[in-house]
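Late entry, written up from scratch paper. The run itself happened at the end of the previous shift, but nothing got recorded in the book at the time, so transcribing now.
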Amino acid sequence: MKKIKILFLLIFTIYSSFNNAQTDKENSNKATILAQNFLKEQKVPGMSISVSKKGELIWSKGFGFVDIKTKKKINPKTTQFRIASISKTLTAVALAKLVDDKKLNFNASLYDYVPDFPKKEYDFSIRQLGGHLAGIRHYKGREFLMNKKMSIVEGLDIFKNSKLLFKPQTKFKYSTYSFNLLSVVIQNASKENYFEYMRKNIFEPLKMFNTVLDVSNKKNANRTKFYVKRKDEIIEGPLVNNEFKAAGGGFLSTSEDLVLFGNEFLKPVVISKTSLKELITPQKTIDGKSTKYGIGVSVSKINNIRKYSHSGGGIGATSYLLIYPEKEIVISILTNLSRVKMRVFIKNLETIFIE
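Output as recorded:
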């Protein structure tokens, strides 16, 4: 009788595995057609999409071109895109690592770690900076298009003398410069160069070997070209330097690397479950209103299914990282075009892989 039960269990396991594999294949075929149509509709030169389930890659595909002149094709394993503001989520995990190592306290004042930053009318915490609640301003004028080479500390000069926009915790106001400050916090708290800290403590442990700083004046054979729309024409975007604001929007990555990173939110190996919870817990304003944003992570639901995410937009970049913990699914989407309208496309992808 025992042997019969074991045999039945084995048959059931094999059948379930086969059935799941068939479903994944069918979903991948549907998603491929969806992506091809999306590419044409939005006139996107190149796109890379990767999807993992329970830590395993179930679909990963490149569409279009790295360079529309040479027709070099996108490779989801090696083609590096600007991930723009998804860089904030990478930085948030680095902050959590420092908390685990007792080198940082989310509730501590910024001035505990960056004492020479100009004093403001109000004090504000690391948590408030990471949740866009500190009152630090965002880009002004054409600052988004700056092409000046600066260190992350020199980058503070752009906004350090600006007044806070509001009393901390009273409003949510998205700010890339908040993450400029957080990269200096990481540097000072760890007593290491920010970029080295990211490489050693986040990228290498998670095997994200194709995630690097976007160094504007350095040749990089894996980096895609960066395109913008000008009326109905697709042209190369202007040169910009994102190194000084890397923590908020200056890294390059591949869609497969970002899936590896996303899986840290399902089964953390670099940070503890305790510090992960800090990142994914939505913060609130003083009046009790949820911001739907933790520390470097947006928190929402789709049909009652939890979703952690971050979008990114930059010169030659529209990117998304989507994490569904209850389904153990991670989706990363990277393009080499600015201002791509992706909301409907994402909803359709979710219909295929999540619902």
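The longest helix spans residues 2-42.
(Scratch paper discarded after transcription.)
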